[in-house]
Amino acid sequence: MRLAIVTSHPIQYYAPFFRLLAKEPGIELKVYYTWSQSQQGAKFDRDFGKMIDWDIPLLDGYQHEFVNNKAKDPGVHHFNGIINPDLNNKITEWNPDFLLIIGWNFRSHFACMRYFKGRVPVLFKGDSTLLDEKPGLKKILRRIFLRWVYSKVDYALYVGKNNHDYFYKHGLRENQLYFLPHAVDNKRFNGPDNYEFDAKQWRRELGIGDGDLVVLFAGKLEPKKDPDFMLRLAKNLPDPRLKMIIVGNGKSEDELKMKGSKDNRIIFLDFQNQQKMPLVYRLADIFVLPSRGPGETWGLAVNEAMACKRPVIVSSKCGCVPDLVEENITGWVFEPGEEGDQKIKDLLNRILDKRSLLDSMGDQAWQKLQPYSYPKAIEKIKQLLENINLAENKTVL
After folding, report:
1. CA–CA separation, 386 vs 278, rounded Å?
2. C-alpha 119, offset from chain centre
3. What residue spans define the domains of the chain?
4. Per-residue confidence at 193, pLDDT binned at 50, 70, 90?
5. pLDDT band for position 49 (50/70/90)?
6. H/E element, 24
7. CA-to-CA distance for 230 and 211, rounded, in angstroms?
8. Which CATH number applies to 2-183+374-396?
């Protein structure tokens, strides 16, 4: 089964999946990268505000091609940032049995969907949700437009419940919807036993005592992720046993550091690359993703933290909540705003006085994550391709 995948550029979440998929018996894979300029290696990340060059291999172990992008302002920050006049011809020459397109909101990707619809089965993957929808005329018009967009898709691969509901609302039927779990490299993050030892050493170097409770935020320092939540938490809960680590860079960085400079319980660390992240999560007793949105369609940092056996505190605006966060079992959910801040303050007060509340939660987080893994995703996509083949052969007969 020849599967062509169209995506914009190599990223740390997809590359390990592509490698494993390419090894799967019965599947021949080729990935077409449409942002050809990303082939040059390190790229300036607008949200982090710095050059990013991932320190894990992104192109090894699978067949791929960078398709010439002729956009005047190339990049993934706008619809006309990806324009590949040769894309459809290149895919046609390779003659795939199936086409998977990741993200429609680039000119070439949408043109590719429209061109191949009816020629080969078109699969689509995105992780949008309805969480940020607001009532009104714009919502109605967007619904009409997106129903037209997704009419160019044969099957949508939903990553979780919120994503499923989004596709269903935009016209895709249940028999067109297939679960393909959002995953990270669980095996790499779970890692060897020495990770815990190395993280304890790092905690001591940061001035964190063995009896301290550490809450971690790691991500882009930007308003939608609400890293200011950590500072509000510090202000509301002055207990010296509570330590807060904020990891990352971004638009809000200077303001956050200025506001947090007088509290020595708040520790700032710059962006940490992928090889270091399993240690970063182990600095913490609890990981927090307090996003207000718009646009926190999932929150893969939650997967990473749970793969490191850390319970999580996650806002209701994160798409992963109904799939991964079970209250008092794998973590806690809160509503953004004053009531949510108060809930987490009260929660951490209880944990500071009764650490046993955390005892089994890390293991339960790890168990909850098992269906959200690359092997499970490969099993699901292979099953879908076989089902499509079977259905098409029946139709021919």
Report:
1. 36
2. 31
3. 2-183+374-396, 186-368
4. confident
5. low
6. none
7. 20
8. 3.40.50.2000
